[in-house]
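Extended Data, record A-factor biosynthesis hotdog domain-containing protein
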Amino acid sequence: MPHTAPDDIRVDARHVHKKDPRGVLVTAARSVTTSAARGVTTARALAVGDVWQVDAHLPLAESQGEVFAHADALVIAVEALRQAGIAHAHVAAGVPVGHRFIASHMGLTWLVDPGFLGTAPVDVTFAIVTEEVRHQRGRLVRHVFTAALLCDGVRIARGTGSLQVVEARVYERLRAGATPWSEVSAHHDPSSLLGIATTDHELTARLGWSASDPITFDHGNDHMPAMHLARTALAAHHALDPASSPTGLLVRCTAFVELGGDVAVRAVRTAHGGVETTFAQSGVVAATVVTTDDVSTATQTAAGRAGRTVPMLSGAGPE
């Protein structure tokens, strides 16, 4: 496990909204350049340009254990970024534990062949930079960030994310009509893609999911986690192009994907050699995942299609 310095803030399951500590990938956080250092007086307020480091431990092939068994390295890295973004909001901005987070977008692109990491567990660090920030009554409500992923000082990936922070009581009202977890807690499908039909350029299917999946359903939820959509999009990418090895993934959400209804999956090849996968309910697209095996294209996609115009309280939560 990574060494922690005296100024490090320890991160645990509470800070990443996990029930099983074996699913916690981030370990510690520390300030590098903060608004406080520049004279901003609001307590624990984030400002554009603030930099924090968040350490993570990636359980790769030799030691994935029960939680991350058979997970793609890209999925593990995106999950680590998701956890880093949430933990950062708690420790850097003072968001109380118990508040909920809604993601408009979350994505990561490898800058090197992920084989660089090898197959043993590896310690990495996210350098998180605040790009946009919004506070209400002194509390963080929106944070858009970029991140560089470092391994032994080498920049191996870049990431981007947008999180909206919602008080628990507000979130409960917002999601009052959602399917209760008790009604779907035994749900199990054999695959994330059901009834697959493919052509040379397109795949269609229905979304499958299992409530016992330890990566995405660590605890009861009221919607389909974005990480399940990300993993399904990777599966669709491989089904359309078995020889491809995706290096980038970007999830963009505009509505909650509900647990209680069928979800139509459609994946199409893009002009740049990637795959765009949409998830729709009742004919309305709720989320889009772009996967690519070209580093420059994935980077441009993450920067240019980040979904920054998504209104408050819309999106599929990352929890």
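Summary. The two ends are 24 Å apart (CA to CA).
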